[in-house]
């Protein structure tokens, strides 16, 4: 497969208004995945150094964020788009702005496209278009055609600079320090030695120096050609650089018999809002953001009422609702769908899959607690200690 053939695959996804993934696999094991929404690329991941890339772009675009305080839920580290989940969480919690989110997405996609453009000319690749995962993109800032054009321009400039055989994923290291000292000033050498140490890739250096990777690589070309500096392969950063947290939030109150209300929603913000409402009304809360983990966690805790987001990646609210109804534990458990849609068809379909009711997003204290109180009061199969409910006028 050459670059022109690969570009045809991107164009095909755009023309078909594809929702899902375009996965590109190299014979050496490298994999790049592009996520599409309505024919536009909304995220990309994979390649040689996904963790280096994520941390590098955080430092470049969101320098105010304390990396040490960012946590990824333990099961999400195995999800291919873990990097998107982290970015989405930062946006939902108000830690980064919309422009930063857009810039991060745009920079990531552009970097991966360039990486792919270089790799596809030296190795065989296969492509697969599927709908295994459909990301709910927060925003689409740049068209696929613009991404492709930017990649072609960047690759053309790289070739014009005579850098065809140099990958920006390589790391420069000084091999002839004495020869270097003879050619540069003492202050230059000191800075050079600090940065050119075999620990940072060319992309890492460009981000640290706030320069383009083309400019940084071109400036090193003379030293590389003379053998003073050598470019070496380096591994990705270890997964341990990103802290893990529990896969769900469980708020245990003193009231042993107080109702347990669960929410399955991939949105961190939606779970946080619902949690504050439920807990402030004297009930316990169980928040689950990974739909794949929902069923075993729900079986373990057996909540008295379940809120389900209608549209989630991998598994929809319909599918989870159907799975729950097949399980004897939840044959009579009230299930309420959270939806941003007023569509009659969506509501009818959810009823068919076993949902009891609906609440429109965004949720508020009154409409949430009214429906919680309504369904917990009607459960006659068990005695539940329901705190006194006071609805504002």
Description:
Its main location: other. It comes from Trichormus variabilis SAG 1403-4b. Keywords: Heterocyst, Phosphoprotein, Two-component regulatory system. InterPro entries: Bact_response_regulator, CheY-like_superfamily, Sig_transdc_resp-reg_PatA, Sig_transdc_resp-reg_receiver. Controls heterocyst pattern formation. A hairpin with a 2-residue loop joins β2 and β3. This protein has a 6-stranded mixed sheet, with helices on both faces. Strands 3-2-1-5 form a 4-stranded antiparallel sheet. Strands 4-8 form a two-stranded parallel sheet. The protein contains 14 helices and 14 strands. The chain is of the alpha/beta class. α2 runs antiparallel to α4. It has 3 domains: 159 residues, no CATH class; 90 residues, Arc Repressor Mutant, subunit A; 125 residues, 3-Layer(aba) Sandwich (Rossmann fold), CATH 3.40.50.
Any chance you could write out the topology, listing elements then pairs?
Elements (H helix, E strand, L loop, with lengths): L2 H13 L4 E7 L4 E7 L2 E7 L3 H12 L9 E3 L8 H11 L5 H22 L5 E6 L13 H17 L10 E4 L2 H7 L2 H10 L6 H8 L3 H13 L3 E4 L10 E3 L2 E4 L8 E5 L3 H13 L3 E5 L5 H8 L3 E5 L7 H10 L8 E5 L4 H9 L4 E4 L4 H14 L15
Parallel strand pairs: 4-8, 10-11, 10-12, 12-13, 13-14
Antiparallel strand pairs: 1-2, 1-5, 2-3, 6-7, 9-11
Helix pairs in contact: 2-4, 2-8, 4-5, 8-9
Protein name: Protein PatA
GO cellular component, one term: cell septum
InterPro entries: Bact_response_regulator, CheY-like_superfamily, Sig_transdc_resp-reg_PatA, Sig_transdc_resp-reg_receiver
């Amino acid at each position: 497969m050459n670059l022109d053939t690969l570009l045809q695959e991107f164009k095909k996804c755009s023309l078909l208004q594809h929702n899902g993934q375009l996965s590109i696999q190299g014979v050496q094991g490298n994999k790049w995945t592009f996520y599409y929404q309505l024919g536009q690329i909304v995220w990309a991941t994979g390649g040689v150094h996904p963790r280096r890339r994520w941390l590098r772009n955080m430092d470049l675009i969101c320098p105010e964020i304390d990396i040490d305080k960012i946590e990824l839920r333990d099961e999400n580290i195995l999800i291919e788009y873990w990097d998107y989940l982290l970015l989405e969480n930062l946006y939902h919690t108000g830690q980064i702005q919309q422009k930063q989110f857009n810039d991060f997405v745009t920079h990531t996609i552009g970097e991966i496209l360039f990486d792919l453009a270089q790799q596809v000319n030296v190795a065989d690749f296969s492509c697969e278009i599927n709908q295994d995962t459909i990301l709910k993109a927060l925003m689409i800032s740049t068209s696929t055609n613009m991404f492709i054009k930017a990649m072609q321009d960047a690759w053309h400039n790289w070739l014009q600079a005579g850098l065809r055989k140099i990958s920006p994923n390589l790391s420069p290291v000084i091999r002839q320090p004495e020869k270097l000292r003879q050619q540069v000033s003492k202050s230059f050498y000191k800075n050079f030695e600090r940065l050119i140490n075999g620990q940072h890739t060319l992309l890492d250096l460009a981000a640290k120096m706030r320069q383009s990777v083309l400019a940084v690589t071109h400036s090193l070309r003379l030293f590389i050609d003379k053998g003073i500096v050598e470019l070496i392969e380096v591994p990705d950063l270890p997964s341990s650089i990103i802290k893990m947290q529990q896969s769900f939030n469980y708020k245990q109150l003193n009231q042993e018999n107080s109702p347990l209300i669960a929410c399955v929603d991939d949105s961190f913000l939606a779970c946080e809002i619902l949690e504050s409402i439920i807990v402030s009304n004297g009930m316990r809360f169980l928040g689950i953001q990974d739909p794949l983990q929902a069923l075993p966690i729900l079986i373990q805790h057996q909540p008295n009422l379940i809120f389900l987001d209608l549209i989630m990646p991998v598994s929809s609210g319909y599918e989870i609702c159907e799975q729950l109804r097949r399980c004897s534990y939840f044959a009579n458990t009230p299930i309420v769908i959270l939806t941003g849609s007023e569509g009659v068809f969506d509501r009818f379909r959810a009823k068919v899959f076993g949902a009891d009711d609906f609440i429109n997003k965004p949720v508020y204290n009154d409409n949430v607690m009214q429906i919680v109180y309504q369904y917990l009061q009607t459960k006659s199969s068990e005695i539940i200690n329901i705190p006194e409910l006071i609805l504002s006028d």
